[in-house]
Design a protein that fits this description.
It is built from ten helices and 13 strands. It has helices at about 25-35, 55-65, 80-85, 85-105, 145-165, 190-205, 225-235, 255-265, 290-295, 300-320; strands at about 15-20, 40, 70, 110-115, 170-175, 175, 210, 220, 220-225, 245, 250-255, 270-275, 285. Strand 4 (about 110-115), helix 5 (about 145-165) and strand 5 form a beta-alpha-beta unit. Bound molecules: guanosine-5'-diphosphate. Guanosine-5'-diphosphate (GDP) binds near residues 119, 143, 175, 193 and 279.
C-alpha cells in the first residue's frame, strides 16, 4: 500500500477534467469541490450525450480531450428501485463504465477515477469491511445487479492498469446523502425518503411516520461533500489497483437515523415500522484504514449533514411548488 501513495502529488491545476454525471448528487458535489483546483471542468448534458451510447461517448471524448475523467455517472436508487428494476441497474451501469473506461484508454487519458459502491462486498463480509473482502462471498440479493456492474467497473480499471499501465483508480463510498439527492419515496435511498416522510408528517400533523423494515439494520452515512473532498484527495495522492473504501467509520441503526431525522425536521410524533418491506444488508461498515493512511478523513457529522440537507430540501421544495 505504501508504494501506491504518490510522494509527489498528481497536480490538477490546468488539467481538463471531465466529470461524467455532473448533474447527479456525486457529480455536482465533485464539480463544486473542483472549483478551487484551478482546473478546467468539462461537462455534457444528458440530453446531448447518452453515456450508454458507445460511439457517442467515444466521439465526444475524442473531441473534448479530457486529461482526467471522474466517472460519477450511474443509474442509482434505493432498495426498492434496485430490486424492481434489475435490468436498468445492470445494463445502464455496465454500458456507461465500459464506454467511458475503454475510450479513456484509447485516448490516453492521464488519470481516471471510477466510483464503486459499498454494496460490492459480500452480504456476510466481516465488519468493518476491508478492501480484500471483495469477491469472497455471495452478494446482498436486493442490490446484486448494481453491485455486479460496479465490481465490473473496478475490474476494468484494474485490467487496463495491468495490461496497459493506465492510471485508472476506483473508490467505493458508503451510503451517500446530501444536496441533489433523489427525494422520491419509491426510488430514493433511506435518508431523503425519511426526510420527506417526516416533513410531510409534520405538515399534516400525523401521529407517526413510517419507515421500512425492522429499523435494526446498521448503516454508515457519508455526506457527498466529504466524498467529493476524498475523491480530489485520491486523484492527487493515490495510484494503485486497490479500490479504496471511503466512509466515516461511524454507523447508526435505521431506527436511530429515523429519530435523528425527525428531530432535525421538527417532527415530534412516533415511528411506525412497515415490516412487509425488506431490511437489506444487516450491516455495512467500511474499514477506512487505507484512506487514513493516505491522510484523509471525513469531517461532516451526521447531524450537521442532515440539517444542511434538510435546508436544501426546503429550498427546493418551495421552488418546486413555485414560491
Ligand atoms: P441499502 O443500503 O442498499 O439497503 O439502501 P437504502 O438506503 O434504500 O436502505 C437502507 C435501509 O433503510 C434498509 O434497511 C431499508 O429497509 C431502510 N429504510 C427504512 N425506511 C426506508 C425508506 O423509506 N426508504 C428506503 N429506501 N429505505 C428505508
Amino acid at each position: 500500500m505504501a508504494d501506491d501513495k504518490l510522494t509527489s502529488p498528481y497536480g490538477l491545476a490546468g488539467k481538463r477534467i471531465w466529470v461524467a454525471g455532473h448533474s447527479g448528487m456525486v457529480g455536482s458535489a465533485t464539480v463544486r469541490r473542483l472549483a478551487s483546483e484551478n482546473c478546467e471542468i468539462l461537462t455534457v448534458p444528458h440530453a446531448k450525450l447518452d453515456l450508454r451510447d458507445q460511439a457517442g461517448v467515444g466521439a465526444w471524448m475524442k473531441h473534448e480531450k479530457p486529461d482526467v475523467v471522474v466517472v460519477a455517472a450511474a443509474t442509482v436508487g434505493g432498495i426498492h428501485a434496485n430490486s424492481t428494476r434489475p435490468a436498468d441497474f445492470i445494463y445502464d451501469n455496465l454500458a456507461i463504465e465500459t464506454n467511458i473506461i475503454h475510450a479513456a484508454f484509447q485516448l490516453g487519458v492521464e488519470k481516471l477515477l471510477f466510483m464503486g459502491s459499498a454494496c460490492i462486498y459480500p452480504r456476510e463480509a466481516e465488519q468493518p469491511m476491508v478492501e480484500e473482502a471483495l469477491l469472497t462471498g455471495p452478494l446482498e440479493p436486493t442490490n446484486e445487479w448494481y453491485a455486479i456492474a460496479k465490481i465490473a467497473g473496478i475490474k476494468l480499471c484494474q485490467a487496463y492498469r495491468k495490461q496497459h499501465g493506465s492510471d485508472f483508480i476506483s473508490a467505493q463510498p458508503n451510503n451517500l446523502y446530501g444536496p441533489n439527492d433523489n427525494f422520491d419515496l419509491q426510488g430514493g435511498h433511506v435518508i431523503p425518503a425519511l426526510m420527506r416522510k417526516a416533513h410531510e408528517a409534520k405538515l399534516s400533523g400525523a401521529p407517526a411516520y413510517e419507515l421500512w423494515g425492522s429499523g435494526t439494520p446498521k448503516r454508515e452515512f457519508l455526506h457527498v461533500d466529504d466524498l467529493a473532498d476524498a475523491l480530489i484527495h485520491i486523484l492527487k495522492y493515490y495510484s494503485g489497483p486497490v479500490p479504496l473504501n471511503i466512509g466515516t467509520g461511524e454507523e447508526v441503526t435505521i431506527a436511530e437515523l429515523a429519530r435523528t431525522i425527525a428531530d432535525v425536521v421538527g417532527f415530534t410524533g412516533n415511528l411506525k415500522f412497515d415490516t412487509s418491506k425488506p431490511d437489506g444488508s444487516p450491516r455495512k461498515l467500511l474499514d477506512d484504514t487505507r484512506m487514513k493512511k493516505l491522510g484523509w478523513r471525513a469531517s461532516i457529522s451526521l447531524r450537521d449533514g442532515l440539517a444542511e440537507t434538510y435546508r436544501w430540501f426546503l429550498d427546493h421544495e418551495s421552488e418546486r411548488r413555485g414560491h
